Amino acid sequence: xxxxxxxxxxxxxxxxxxxxxxxxxxxxxxxxxxxxxxxxxxxxxxxxxxxxxxxxxxxxxxxxxxxxxxxxxxxxxxxxxxxxxxxxxxxxxxxxxxxxxxxxxxxxxxxxxxxxxxxxxxxxxxxxxxxxxxxxxxxxxxxxxxxxxxxxxxxxxxxxxxxxxxxxxxxxxxxxxxxxxxxxxxxxxxxxxxxxxxxxxxxxxxxxxxxxxxxxxxxxxxxxxxxxxxxxxxxxxxxxxxxxxxxxxxxxxxxxxxxxxxxxxxxxxxxxxxxxxxxxxxxxxxxxxxxxxxxxxxxxxxxxxxxxxxxx
Length: 312
Ligand SMILES: Nc1ncnc2c1ncn2[C@@H]1O[C@H](COP(=O)(O)OP(=O)(O)OP(=O)(O)O)[C@@H](O)[C@H]1O
What we know:
Layout: E1 10-19, E2 22-32, E3 37-41, H1 48-56, E4 63-68, H2 77-80, E5 84-87, H3 99-108, H4 116-122, H5 138-150, E6 156-160, H6 168-183, E7 187-191, H7 195-201, E8 204-209, E9 212-217, H8 219-223, E10 230-235, H9 243-248, E11 254-259, E12 262-267, H10 271-284, E13 289-295, H11 298-306
Parallel strand pairs: 3-7, 3-8, 5-6, 6-7
Antiparallel strand pairs: 1-2, 1-4, 8-9, 10-12, 10-13, 11-12
Helix pairs in contact: 3-5
Membrane topology: Peripheral membrane protein
Protein name: ABC-2 type transport system ATP-binding protein
Subcellular location: Cell membrane
């Protein structure tokens, strides 16, 4: 059964999943619009993988409703599996199997698979086809796992940290592939710890912490929620005394040396504020290098919402 065109590819409502006394997911709601990319962000242990695994049908929810392509993954797994692609965290291949054997094996399960040789070529794996899975590099294992997720021409793909451990070249290749999937109308739900990945790829970002959603929206919504959340940055010699600059700025604005020699003014950055900063620099005989005005980054928002403490 195909979902109504307007209905989300994934709809999760009030999801609860416990492991013993651990509430891994604790009343989580999200919706992935068909043909878009949703990025699930959160600190370690926030419940991202558990949520994805419930959506994939690999884990059973304790409470809540989950609909994936209009189906209940816990009940309708047989009908759902041929329509989705899954890239689990950490690859998930059989240690002794060769790269091409693994992809061909997965392809045999699909009704109308993509050509495995073409996919291996697209993912830069042609030179490694005869290498056993366990001897592939981490990045190659990830790319093979992505090939396995895509070979069945899925309508929806789940990518759990798809670029973890990849070099920048491979990461950009994967980003291009995700964009191409979206252009083809495929829906993508991915998890990531890379804020630039979420900003680059996602139409919608859901930030979770402690098994609940703490914020969601487009990357632009999340980073420009308040007009006052802007930053002016400049580089200058380390250790500048900032009291006079602080006093010259409008009330409520903050100024600090964020990193050695890297200064940050936070608040509503108006032309007057820029002028105040550059005048102060001129008075101090300081050349402000790399002066930029920007919104807060997604990482700033993420850290503000989830804190800076390491998770156990
Ligand atoms: N099979 C399991 N048995 C017991 N506890 C588990 C199991 N899987 C996950 N957990 C716990 O559930 C919580 C959520 O884990 P989950 O893997 O979903 O988080 P995550 O957001 O994907 O984390 P990460 O970013 O580290 O991958 C954590 O406290 C984790 O220790």
